[in-house]
Design a protein that fits this description.
The protein has helices spanning 16-25, 76-89, 93-108, 122-133, 152-167, 177-187, 200-204, 231-244, 259-263, 282-287, 304-308, 315-320, 334-342, 353-365, 367-384, 387-397, and strands at 3-6, 33-37, 57-60, 112-116, 137-140, 172-174, 191-193, 218-223, 249-254, 271-274, 291-295, 325-328, 346-348. It is α/β, with parallel strands linked by helices.
Length: 405
Amino acid sequence: MKFALVSHILPPSRSGQAMVIYRLLRDLDPDNYCLLSQQDCEAGTQQNNYTERLPGRYYRLLPEFRIARGYRFGLQWVRIILNSILRVILLPSVVLRGRQIAEIMRREHCDAVVACTGELWNLPAGYLASRLVGVPFFPYLFDYYSYQWIEPGARFLAQRLEPILLKGATGIIAPNEFLRDALRRRYGVEATVIRNPCDIAEYEALPNDALTMNSDEIRIVYTGAVYEAQYDAFRNLLAAIELLERPTVKLHLYTAQSPRALDRKGISGPVVYHGHQPLSAIPGIQRQADLLFLPLAFNSSYPAEIIRTSAPGKMGEYLAARRPILVHAPPDSFVVWYFRQHECGLVVDQSDPVKLAQAIERSLTDASLRQRLSVRAWKRAQSDFSISAAQASFAKLIKLAEGRH
């Protein structure tokens, strides 16, 4: 059994999606898969690498033509409108990409195609390729495909393509129960939940330090990209820190976004900015936190459904770090449900800096609470987010033959 995996971004790039792909495939025989992307995986520099490169064969697909400039002087919406028009006009390009994928699959003797969300054309092109070659099609939904687009043209096309793609799939992968259930209600299809896995072994290798607070500085830590789906939650956190009137409490951001870019979004104040860190450094950084922050926006340009069904890639990492986790997200979101259901983190599901400040104060002063959250978080990481469990579910779904090395 050999499959082609199509994704707009692949290992070793700096991306949560690339990291999940790396962890799923790293133990497979490279003869069991090939990797297809419009990304030039040969052009990345070492500093942009987040994981190791997978040993499977990489192929580059034809890139989508888009207008990338136009963020300044109030031109952002002009760029969005033009790109929406272009997506409709260039719809036939999905046929070209589908044929290119099919040609590669025939050359590689692939028995299935797995197409990932994150780019508009990869799912329909993967579906077309599966029909041209006559093999099973597996959409991998890292996000809700029809809702993840800000551009109106992209959303219009995705909403019309989604029922065709999902009802024509052999199997569907979703990262959580909320997205699985939404697809069942909307289309009558069944998806397999494969959580974004975490390398538990990296956290097991770290000393299990006592949950004592840092004396000189209280570190609220966030690791990863900061973007539109989180901005107002970060602003609430910074307002809450100010309300605490504790000068030692600081937000430590480990992100590729620049301080200047974040400042333009109102994310400034008691913040310590750290640049991009290699994947190997993240477990140690998270374990040094007094509190790990897991935010999702209450108000953003994204549809509410994309926030509700979101499964942040860092969830498993945060749980494995065995440090108290502060979840700040809308009440109907998957992350709020999960942490409430398993009582493995503090949850503030209202856009209220006062309530957020109260939760922070509680975490800082209640040692028994921190210990309970730590123990429960570790159990959830082991049971729900291990790489071996994700790999087994993936192999079972696509009926992957024996081929591990």
